[in-house]
Amino acid sequence: MGNLTLIIVCSFFQDADEFIQRQEYLFEKLKVDSIVFKAPNMESGETQEDNLVKGYHFYYIFGFDLNSEGYVVLKKGEKGITRTLYSDEMPSILITKMQGFKKKKLKDYKSIEEKLGNDAVYWEHGSSSEKNKSSEQSARLNRLITAMRTIKSPAEIALIQKATDITCNAHNQVMKKVSKLKTEQEIEKLILNTYAAEGAQDIGFSCIVGSGVNGVTLHYMDNNSNLPDDSLVVIDIGCKYNNYVTDVTRTIPTGGKFSGKMKKAYEAVLGAQKEAEKRLKPGVTLAQLQEVSVRYLKEQNFPPFPHGLSHHVGLAVHDDNNTGYMKPLKAGMVITIEPGYYSKKDGFGIRIEDMYLVTESGFIRMSESAPREIDQIEKLITTPDSVVAANEPRKFDIDDKELDAQPSSKRRTFGINVDTSVTDEDIDSLKLEQNAGAVKVESVVPGSVADKCGIEDGDYIINFDGKDIGRDSSYEDLVSLIQTAKAGTEIKIVVIRNGKSMTLNAKFEK
Ligand SMILES: [Mn+2]
């Protein structure tokens, strides 16, 4: 990764409270004594897609995934909810940190199941099955979670914003370097490198990089053609950040200039997107947005596009929701608007896709830091050092105070810049235990938790709150640990400084 430096953004994490509140909300709405969740089992014969869809609901309620068979039993008692996980696997996130979570062997589940009998609601990925003793309640539970997921919490919005900022930066990198790139594959590589350098844990979906006539294929993923000299390339991408994804498409000229039919068509598509934006506020439906968008294209003598204008985005790129195309949108929903033009005859495709948070008064375009105006895109391609108007990632409108006011979305500000140029040899030189890893601190943000506890530039963090940093994914490990650190309690951090290990104490604000 070279000498790239990245800021470890630990400001935006959902802490365990948010998941606990969701569990409590289920009891409040369903008015039952017990709820049994069967964990999504990736090993089973069901399709991967199916499992993913099911996995999102489970993750939304508990904040972790299981890759093996397991059950979570929630029981409402006088002292609150008791939570028991029946599984032979330990979830990667530190489940013991979640209040009152008991862990039992999978084989013990059989006995509890008989006791629960018909008084429990059984949830098995939302589908009714033989085991579903209360299928009507089960379907209700499933719809309830879908409804909850449709409106994003401030913590979720911040995560989607972060994923969006990283993805927009990948677009900016491509615009700045496209004149030197020769193939679709090189563009894809640049995108993936940007994701990694900025701390995205994964892709949200496979990159679509369609140059020339390949841009006409909606889900083109071969990405193996040479870039034509003077054509367009459709780049539809989104990374995953702390389980949340994003979806942003830009179409750029390989030769640096939109000309002739390309320019005319691009202007029409951009106009169609802006027409939909004009109507975007609570109360409007996606069908209405699609209608105005298509009508605008028709007025400009361009055909309707062969796909939906919008979809919801969250844990999934096409996120589950209870609104569809016909029900009015509400504040807190996150959607795309993505009109397009596709012509084999012209030899190119165009799609412009942005991410929108619906607000009380209208919307916030979350992806505005990747330019979409013709003059700005051309400027960035031809003079890569220039800064165009929208270049800076947007600072999200929910300010700190508002975030702090939400008990479910306490911020985890740690405050270090990570040195990503650390090699395996660097880690070896620390002489750690087998499979142990380390995160090297490039610099500390003044006044941050890291600063207050005495972390210094050049320190290697090897253990956080009793947990070793792993060898293979040290960065992700640290992020997970910070995410689950409990506010107000003392946390021990072991660092290696000048070859010597030392223990520092940190405390996250309540
Ligand atoms: Mn999309």
Summarize the structure.
With 510 residues, this protein is of the alpha+beta class. The chain has helices at residues 16-30, 48-62, 109-116, 135-150, 154-177, 184-197, 260-279, 286-299, 374-382, 400-405, 424-428, 449-452, 474-484, and strands at residues 5-8, 34-38, 70-77, 80-87, 101-104, 120-123, 202-203, 208-211, 232-237, 239-241, 244-245, 248-253, 334-337, 340-343, 348-351, 354-359, 362-365, 416-419, 439-444, 460-464, 467-468, 490-497, 500-507. Mean pLDDT is 83; it is low at 1-13, 126-132 and 394-411.
Describe the model:
Helices cover 32% and strands 22% of the residues. Strand 10 (239-241) and strand 11 form a beta hairpin. With 510 residues, it is an alpha+beta fold. Helix 5 (154-177) crosses helix 6 (184-197) and helix 5 packs across helix 9 (374-382). Strands 1, 18, 19, 20, 21, 22 and 23 form a 7-stranded antiparallel sheet that branches. It has 13 helices and 23 strands. It has 3 domains: 5-13 and 412-507, Roll (Pdz3 Domain); 32-150, no CATH class; 154-403, Creatinase/methionine aminopeptidase superfamily (Creatine Amidinohydrolase). The protein binds manganese (II) ion.
Provide the descriptors you would attach to this structure in a database record.
alpha+beta; 3 domains; Creatine Amidinohydrolase; Pdz3 Domain; 510 residues; seven-stranded antiparallel sheet; single chain; disordered N terminus
